[in-house]
Amino acid sequence: MSEVLRAVKGMNDILPPESARWEWFEAKVRSLMQRYAYRNVRTPVVEPTALFVRGLGAVTDIVEKEMYSFEDAMNGDRLTLRPEATAGIVRAMIEHNALYNGPLRLWSQVVLFRHERPQKGRYRQFHQIDVEALGHAGPDVDAEQILMCRALWRDLGLVEGRDVRLELNSLGQPNERLAHRAALIAHFEKHADALDEDGRRRLHTNPLRILDSKNPAMQAINEAAPRLIDFLGADSLAHFDAVRAVLDAAGLEYRVNPRMVRGLDYYNLTVFEWVTDQLGAQGTVCGGGRYDGMFEQLGGKPTPAIGWGMGVERMLLLLEAVGVPMPPAAVDVYAIVPGPKALPVALTTCEALRAAGVSVQMHAAGAEGWGSMKAQFRRADASGARHALVFGDDELARGEVALKPLRDAAATQRLVALADLGTWASTLTA
Ligand code: ATP
Ligand code: MG
Fold first, then answer.
1. Angle CA 221–260–66, to nearest 5
2. pLDDT averaged over the chain?
3. In sequence order, which residues have a C-beta less than 8 Å from that of residue 34 and are 6 or more positions away?
4. How many CB atoms lie within 10 A of CB 269?
5. Mean pLDDT, rounded, for 309-330
6. Backbone angles phi, psi at 311, to 5 degrees
7. In whole angstroms, what separates CA 33 from the centre of its chain?
8. Which residues line ligand 1 (CB under 6 A)?
9. Count of CB atoms within 10 A of residue 403's CB?
């Protein structure tokens, strides 16, 4: 026998029944996007490496150490498996002049790749729901995007405040960050001995990133660092206040967290994270913010923009952790077919039921043949179907089939006429 091959470390197979949770979650997301009038966008998984270096900033965790970059063996192009969604979408907008007719609200479900240390809630291939509003400068869309998240929590059965909490900050504008940066460097220089290796390296390249450190040894020195929010001018503060006013009016509680800088260079003004206590160190399930400078950074016209990314794996872990019930199996009917003689009628009946919207799983012959009725009923039970439809020879001779409820102990089997399928089919769907 040949050696068994395994998936790449940190990259997961998503199999049934777990995949049903994914579909359930994705349906909730699609409904949300439709209600908020966000339109779907899909961009390539592979992009030029330069897109991420320019879009995200060279001195970021992702670009410095997490990207899957490679050279195209055919032509030597420098390519990267996308580590985040926004840069690719912005590139597509610029390339196709897609904002020609005005602003756009877009969403995407993306697969992303980051070379991290795999652990619960942190993988090398993972998925995000990504939302972007392009061309809107005002605090109104900032608030809308945060409220969208709350609407999703409610649709999913999560309780905000208990299961997920909002943290909010403002990163101001580039000139304000420059003044803060000088103060930050002075602070870290004073405590240079306490800096870890990353910190020392970033002290003069990107000191704001030091605040983003996950190293517990860096907590104290970061706590004492000058706060960016104290360097904001009147316009930035007004923008922040306007976002907060909407959230307050909507009754959404949040904590202003002046230490939250987000992992990427491109953010300005509003930044936010939805966090949970349920997932240990992987406590951020959704993060986002404004990135008004990115279009220019990537060679486009100045265009205000804001977006968020939600980790799908972490969301599903959270739903499981707080005990949100998942949907029951989607199969309505398991068709029990005693043997080849019944097959033509059984198959056409299954087709008619499916055309009427009923979900039907047909018993198909395995390597050992059809299997006994008992074995078929065992399969029917395991399928999660609510009914068994039995195509017995005697009943078929009379133009009938037996319909047996599988989940309701009190209900009894009855005979239904094939000719009346239109009337009883509708009683079988959930
Ligand atoms: P973290 O601080 O946990 O590394 P991040 O700031 O790098 O997160 P973002 O780039 O903002 O994360 O991505 C948004 C969301 O995507 C995160 O809040 C998280 O839910 C999810 N996410 C990020 N990295 C991973 C990963 N390696 N595996 C699974 N989900 C991830
Ligand atoms: Mg990260």
1. 90
2. 94
3. none
4. 25
5. 91
6. -80, 115
7. 13
8. 84, 114, 116, 121-123, 126, 128, 263, 282, 284-287, 309, 311, 313-314
9. 18
Q: Are 319 and 21 in contact (CB under 8 A)?
A: yes
Can you tell me the mean pLDDT for 180-184? Answer: 92
Does 265 have pLDDT greater than 80?
no
Domains of the chain from N-terminus onward: 18-172+232-321 (3.30.930.10), 333-428 (3.40.50.800)
Whether 305 contacts 296, CB under 8 Å: no
Q: How far is the CA of 72 from the centre of ligand 1 (A)?
A: 27
Look at residue 123 and tell me whether its pLDDT is greater than 80: yes
pLDDT single digits (tens) 374-409:
999 999 999 999 999 999 999 999 999 999 999 888
DSSP string, 110-127: EEEE-----BTTB-SEEE
Round to whole Å and give the CA distance between 95 and 132. Answer: 17
Q: 357: closest CA among 297, 426, 307?
A: 426
Classify strands 78-81 and 46-48 as parallel, antiparallel or unpaired.
antiparallel
Under 8 Å between Cβ of 287 and 276: no
Per the CB < 8 A criterion, the answer to whether 42 and 11 are in contact is no
Ligand 1, atom 29, lies closest to the CA of 122
Q: What is the pTM of this model?
A: 0.92
Q: Could you give the CA distance from residue 172 to residue 176 in angstroms, rounded to a whole number? A: 6
Report the distance separating Cα 153 and Cα 135, nearest Å: 27
Give the pLDDT confidence score for residue 329 in this predicted structure: 67
pLDDT value, residue 115: 98
* Long-range contacts (CB closer than 8 Å, 24 or more residues apart) made by 62-69: 62/114, 62/263, 62/264, 65/115, 66/114, 66/115, 66/116, 67/113, 67/114, 67/115, 68/113, 68/114, 68/115
Place of tokens 């968020």: 308
Token reading at 224: 């004492």
- Nearest C-alpha to atom 22 of ligand 1 is from which residue? 311
Looking at residue 275, its pLDDT comes to 97
Burial of 165 (0-12, 13-18, 19+ CB in 10 A): middle
Residue nearest to atom 19 of ligand 1 (CA): 311
- Whole-number Å distance, alpha carbon 286 to ligand 1 midpoint, is 8
d(CA 85, CA 108): 8
Task: Using alpha carbons, select from 220, 301, 308 the residue that is nearest to residue 270.
Answer: 308
pLDDT in tens, 25-82: 999 999 999 999 999 999 999 999 999 999 998 888 899 999 999 999 999 999 999 9
